[in-house]
Amino acid sequence: MHCKAPSFISRLNYRKTIIYHRQDRMSVMRFPASFRFAAAAMALGALTACSSVPITSMVKLVRTDLAATDPAVLRIAVRLPQGLRPRRVTLRVTVAVGAEKREQAFVLADLDDPGELLSLKDEVTNDTMIYAFRIAPEDVPRLLAVRDQMAAHKAKGERGSLTIGVGAEACRIGTLPAKTLITTYLKTERAGDFFPLTRDVDLRKDVPKEAVPERIPLCN
């Protein structure tokens, strides 16, 4: 599928921020997720769908240390209605120490191993499709360097944060269904399964009126 760059961009973002101290380790999670629709540089609206995060996933996230997760095994998946297609998916990692912030962007690669999606087989329905992504192998060393940078600040007792966000641009094929439900998944362990990060977020119901699904560009 080939889509030209849209005027309106649909982004599915979720973030986990890790705060570190000299002695105490405290994790602060920003759930999950927000759908942002932008025209040029102007954001039209945002949704924080905390209520769409399953309780079991909250527990899983609390127990997950993304700073210690091997980037090579990190997987991200999204379930979309048949009428939506993902475009470029980008991982943004921001390390903040004091007033200084450094951000790096990584364009994710398609996950092309069907065996890795077995844990999602019961999540697929007749009117949905699941798309999965991974860190491109050539980007793993760069992401490991970011993680090492954060660890070095922590070892010095410097307070800061690591924020990981994922944005997925999307386009649509024709008219979308009355309920446009989107579910996202995360996998952080090589031998682990995908677990839902957000479930059944309704674009029509849960986002500002200016960001109705019809504002998502058509695919070419």
Q: Name the helix and strand elements from N-terminus to C-terminus, one letter apiece.
A: EEEEHEEEEEHEEEH
Integer average pLDDT = 71
Spatial separation of the terminal alpha carbons:
8 Å
Q: Poorly predicted ranges (pLDDT <50, ≥5 residues)?
A: 1-51
Please provide the count of β strands. Answer: 12
Please, how many domains? 1
Largest sheet: 7 strands, antiparallel
State the share of residues found in helices, binned by percent: 10-25%
Global structural class: mainly beta
Rg calculated over all Cα atoms: 17 Å
Describe the 3D structure.
The protein is mainly β and 220 residues long. It has one domain. 13% of the residues lie in helices and 43% in strands. It has three helices and twelve strands; from the N terminus they run E-E-E-E-H-E-E-E-E-E-H-E-E-E-H. The strands form two sheets. Strands 1, 2, 3, 4, 6, 7 and 10 form a seven-stranded antiparallel β-sheet that branches. Strands 8-9-5-11-12 form a five-stranded antiparallel β-sheet. The longest helix is centred in the last third of the chain and has 16 residues. The chain is globular and about 55 Å long. The N and C termini lie close together (8 Å). The N terminus is likely disordered.
